[in-house]
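call fold(seq) -> C-alpha coordinates
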Amino acid sequence: MTGRPKPIDCEEYARRLLTLLAEGHGHPAIARRLDYSERAIRRHIEALCRRSGCRSATQLAVWATRHGLICPAVPPAPAGVPGRPDVQSAMGGVSPWPTRIAS
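ret:
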Protein backbone atom coordinates (compact mmCIF):
# COMPACT_ATOMS: atom_id res chain seq x y z
CA MET A 1 0.00 0.00 0.00
CA THR A 2 2.77 2.44 -0.74
CA GLY A 3 1.78 5.81 -2.11
CA ARG A 4 -1.90 5.42 -1.16
CA PRO A 5 -3.49 7.61 1.48
CA LYS A 6 -4.77 5.89 4.59
CA PRO A 7 -8.56 5.62 4.44
CA ILE A 8 -10.30 7.76 7.02
CA ASP A 9 -12.14 5.95 9.79
CA CYS A 10 -15.86 6.40 9.13
CA GLU A 11 -16.56 7.05 12.80
CA GLU A 12 -13.81 9.67 12.93
CA TYR A 13 -15.17 11.35 9.80
CA ALA A 14 -18.72 11.41 11.22
CA ARG A 15 -17.47 12.93 14.48
CA ARG A 16 -15.55 15.63 12.60
CA LEU A 17 -18.60 16.41 10.45
CA LEU A 18 -20.92 16.52 13.49
CA THR A 19 -18.50 18.69 15.45
CA LEU A 20 -18.27 21.25 12.64
CA LEU A 21 -22.05 21.18 12.29
CA ALA A 22 -22.54 21.71 16.03
CA GLU A 23 -20.08 24.61 15.98
CA GLY A 24 -22.36 26.37 13.52
CA HIS A 25 -20.45 25.88 10.28
CA GLY A 26 -22.55 25.74 7.11
CA HIS A 27 -22.39 23.07 4.44
CA PRO A 28 -19.91 25.00 2.25
CA ALA A 29 -17.47 25.53 5.15
CA ILE A 30 -17.76 21.90 6.25
CA ALA A 31 -17.17 20.74 2.68
CA ARG A 32 -14.02 22.84 2.42
CA ARG A 33 -12.70 21.65 5.79
CA LEU A 34 -13.32 17.96 5.09
CA ASP A 35 -12.40 18.17 1.39
CA TYR A 36 -15.75 16.90 0.10
CA SER A 37 -18.34 18.47 -2.15
CA GLU A 38 -21.28 20.32 -0.62
CA ARG A 39 -23.58 17.71 -2.13
CA ALA A 40 -21.65 14.92 -0.40
CA ILE A 41 -21.85 16.76 2.93
CA ARG A 42 -25.62 17.20 2.53
CA ARG A 43 -26.01 13.51 1.75
CA HIS A 44 -23.84 12.49 4.71
CA ILE A 45 -25.88 14.69 7.03
CA GLU A 46 -29.12 13.26 5.62
CA ALA A 47 -27.82 9.72 6.19
CA LEU A 48 -26.81 10.55 9.76
CA CYS A 49 -30.26 12.07 10.35
CA ARG A 50 -31.93 8.90 9.09
CA ARG A 51 -29.72 6.69 11.27
CA SER A 52 -30.29 8.81 14.39
CA GLY A 53 -33.96 9.57 13.83
CA CYS A 54 -33.34 13.33 13.67
CA ARG A 55 -35.36 15.55 11.34
CA SER A 56 -32.81 18.32 10.75
CA ALA A 57 -29.10 19.07 10.86
CA THR A 58 -29.65 21.25 13.93
CA GLN A 59 -31.48 18.48 15.73
CA LEU A 60 -28.69 16.08 14.71
CA ALA A 61 -26.00 18.35 16.18
CA VAL A 62 -27.91 18.69 19.46
CA TRP A 63 -28.55 14.93 19.57
CA ALA A 64 -24.87 14.12 18.98
CA THR A 65 -23.78 16.56 21.69
CA ARG A 66 -26.32 15.32 24.24
CA HIS A 67 -25.37 11.70 23.59
CA GLY A 68 -21.68 12.46 24.12
CA LEU A 69 -20.65 11.60 20.58
CA ILE A 70 -19.01 15.00 20.15
CA CYS A 71 -17.79 17.83 22.32
CA PRO A 72 -17.88 20.93 20.12
CA ALA A 73 -15.84 24.01 20.88
CA VAL A 74 -17.72 26.92 22.36
CA PRO A 75 -20.39 27.68 19.76
CA PRO A 76 -20.18 30.97 17.93
CA ALA A 77 -22.14 33.84 19.47
CA PRO A 78 -25.30 34.90 17.66
CA ALA A 79 -24.94 37.72 15.16
CA GLY A 80 -24.80 41.13 16.75
CA VAL A 81 -23.39 40.10 20.12
CA PRO A 82 -20.75 42.51 21.45
CA GLY A 83 -17.24 41.15 21.58
CA ARG A 84 -17.73 38.66 18.77
CA PRO A 85 -14.23 38.24 17.25
CA ASP A 86 -15.30 37.99 13.59
CA VAL A 87 -17.29 41.22 13.84
CA GLN A 88 -14.44 42.99 15.63
CA SER A 89 -11.91 41.93 13.01
CA ALA A 90 -14.22 43.16 10.25
CA MET A 91 -14.43 46.49 12.07
CA GLY A 92 -10.66 46.84 12.41
CA GLY A 93 -10.50 45.39 15.91
CA VAL A 94 -13.07 47.79 17.35
CA SER A 95 -16.43 46.53 18.55
CA PRO A 96 -19.30 48.36 16.81
CA TRP A 97 -21.40 48.16 20.00
CA PRO A 98 -21.11 50.34 23.08
CA THR A 99 -19.57 48.64 26.10
CA ARG A 100 -22.25 50.09 28.36
CA ILE A 101 -25.74 51.35 27.81
CA ALA A 102 -26.09 55.12 27.91
CA SER A 103 -28.54 56.40 30.53
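Residues 6 and 13 are 13 Å apart (CA to CA).
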